Amino acid sequence: MRCLDEATFMEVMLGGLPPARVAELDAHLDTCPSCRRLMAQALQARTSEPVDAADSLASTGPSSSSAVEAAPLARGTAVGRYLVLERLGAGGMGVVYAAYDPELDRRVALKLLRTRGLGLELEAGRALLLREAQAMARVSHPHVVPIYDVGTFGEQVFLAMELVEAQTLRQWLLVAPRSWREVRDAFVQAGRGLAAAHAAGLVHGDVKPENLLVGRDGRVRVTDFGLARTATSGGGEVPRLVGGTPAYMAPEQLAGDGQVDARSDQFSLCVALYEALHGERPFQGATVDALSLEVRAGRVRPAPRGSSVPAWLHRAVLRGLEVEPSRRHASLEALLAALLADPGARRRRWLAWAGGMALVLGAVVATHALHAHQARACAGAAERAMASVWGTPHQRAVEAAFLGTERPFATAAWAQVRRSLNAYTSAWVTTRTAACEATRVRGEQSEEVLGKRMRCLDGRLAEVAALTQVLAQADADVVGRALRAVESLPAPSGCSDSATLARGAEPSEALRAALVRARALEAAGRYAEGLSVALPAAESARKEGDRAGSAEGLLAVAELREQAGDYRGAEEALFESLWAAEAVGHDRVAARGWTLAVRLTGERFEQFALARRWRERADAALLRLGGDDGLRARLHVNVGRVLYVQGHYAEAEAQHRQALELLERTVGPESLAVSEVLLKRCAAWTSLGRTEEALELGHRALALREHALGPEHPEVGMALAELAEVRWYRSEFAEAERLSLRSIEVLERALGPEHPGLVSALNTLATTRIPLGWKPVELLPMLERALRLMEASGGADSSDSAVLTHNIAATMARAGRVQEAGRLLAEATARLERKLGREHPTLVVMLISLADVHRMQGKLAEALPHYERAAAIQDSLVEDRQNLWGQTLLNLGRVYVDLGRPGDAVAPLSRLLAGRERTHVSPMVGAVGRFFLARALWDSGGDRQRALQLATEARTLVDDQDPSAPRFRKDLEAWLARHER
């Protein structure tokens, strides 16, 4: 190869060479030192910063490691579970290999990302890349190259991706003449992929023709998110992007000020689209500095003379090239809408905003009509169908309803709901278009399969229609649940699995319309309205002998009743549904039903043996179904909840951990479903005494909810209450009080003062203020309010109600109302035993409180068996949840001494002083324990010299800050005076 001139180096620096040319130049630099020097000199002369020559080949900036790669991995090298086959190429961020996945028997593309050049230490750089790679793996979209797996290989991070037989979009433009419509349509596909990434909180950062692949099937895919960054809360901004290709950079990227977001990708896409339409880039400049001046000044070249690009399309592109990000299109979706708004092809839109069942049925009928009309383009049909249920009028109606509630979290909730629904509808349009093209354009799929996919997608569209109708009539409760309702929509990608579609039963149109509306109402918290829709539909299906439809309808009824607190009614409907589902082999309903049965029977009715049996049924249904990660995660969550109620905290944590892994893979690590499981794990770790781990999980859940919902959302209040409880167990009472108060403020503003969601925060606040010196009479109103709220929500007979009753009774006892406290404690203890059994860990504190009340009344013989039971339960536990072990043994020994049974007191008091790693014994407990062991040894005729030594040690351990210290010290000194003679 001849030596390179300066113009070639500038072309490399500005970007735009195809990969083959880059690789050729890369190899040449290895053999031509003079060329390498010339490259470095040219770059240093034309930019404000010196740039290493080899680093400029694929992109410029500090993120690019040397393009001169070390020896390639040998064929057969194991990277994770993948076996390297051959090297495909290299870019600024890493090297790509073809590899074999032996577990799934398929070829994949394996990209190894470099950690050098990030400006971070090795471990920090690798951790950063790993987190970002995991974020990229969340994006599942037909126009994004899918990432199957993420892991580490030595100092590097690897991505396992789909191996696509494709050419770059630049190559696609060169191999044949392309009309403006073909170019526009290709970029619309790329834009949909980018929009999906933005919806997942990612910014690409290096959009250019080389990172847009055109497959042999004609589908455009976005790839190489090597410069992507995850968005932060607030304005959706990202940390400074490390690198990019100057010719396609937005002004804010060239400035390097860190204000880079989704609108920067829009700018880059429009640069590439302008270039593809007109044959030249929109901004002049042979050097980085010259180009930067033109871009920042907004000096776009005029369209070439004789261009066939229509003026409306040119205007849409120019808007995406505005210098100020706020003047560009509001989003990628808005840009795509402008690119498709061809006046010559515009059709009459459906504008009617129908209500109720007519809207749902109309959406279904409309999409069937669009499907039947073969003359319409696939993409246009999908766009029109979605516009009929989530167009501008619908969005305005939902926004008005949200803001009309005047709740403090309504604005943030609307922004998140709009973003999430836009992402969902974009994925639906793309999936429907791909399904249509597979049959009508490429002939790869039969009409029968297309029909099944279209019917499935019709159902998904009807779900959107039903939900948007509910959201357009939103009250405060609906606004609070809205984002979770959107997350509960079934993914459009499920309609691409022919095997799954073949296993599913087809409900009638009327039943499907009713069910999607009922589910939308359930997700929004309108359970009574949902039942009024679902119950008649289920009854109708049963009367018509439609067992599959009856199974689906009755399951919806069971789910709604369970959410509304009608547990017996839910149980009745659920088992009717399961009988029908099992009778006709409707495995999806069976799997969902048995999974619900686990929670209903185990957590609500606390019938644990039956819950274990239903878990086995759920497992069997999932196996018949062929597996479903979403349902499997739900089963793990429900099993974990039941185990937690039983006091099996370690097993509960393991179930929640498995659920978390599945959910992070299926719905992404930042979904609300993930935040809920994080809080379940937080509670389990707290109960195991692992409060450091609990705090980490709780803070992560809180951050997810604040980012998704805003700081005033009720789910944020719930997370604050959970963190307050962790702080209480850590004896960090001031912080627990602060978090409880903040939780109560958020929940009262969002839900009102009578909502049962306040119970936990009120209980924690009251119990926190005891060690902070508040008087019992000041705390009782908080606890009594919490109990009233729980009873009003249908939880009067629950184990949680028993715990609250105990806390009220214990507070009464401190206020001197001992007799009344004893009655309530006996009632609460008996109720908890009935619900959870006689060995449950929560009984320890209740038994101690009951025994303490008997002791206050001088009823030592009645107190003794309660102390003995508390000690026996404590001995069976691995953890010491509330640091009660030492207090239990101390009280047991004291009662034995006071009852005149000093010989029986020696064993528990000796165990107390011997100590165990799992507990912490305070100095005051140690002092009292030594004194009573001294008395027990002396009075039982034991080692009296040791007794005197223990009493003397006790004198040095007395905590004079303890309220009981003066009385104790007086008794101790008197005993020593009598026995030291």
From TrEMBL:
UniProt entry keywords in alphabetical sequence: ATP-binding, Kinase, Nucleotide-binding, TPR repeat, Transferase
Gene Ontology terms for molecular function: protein serine/threonine kinase activity
PROSITE patterns the record matches: PROTEIN_KINASE_ATP (PS00107), PROTEIN_KINASE_DOM (PS50011), PROTEIN_KINASE_ST (PS00108), TPR (PS50005)
Cleavable signal peptide: none
Residue ranges occupied by any Protein kinase domain in the UniProt entry: 82-340
Residues in TPR repeats: 633-666
EC number(s) from the headed UniProt entry: 2.7.11.1
Binding of ATP, residues: 111
Transmembrane segments: none
Name of one Pfam family that matches: TPR_12
Coiled coil, from the record: none
PANTHER family: MITOGEN-ACTIVATED PROTEIN KINASE KINASE KINASE 20-RELATED, SERINE_THREONINE-PROTEIN KINASE NEKL-3
Protein name: Serine/threonine-protein kinase
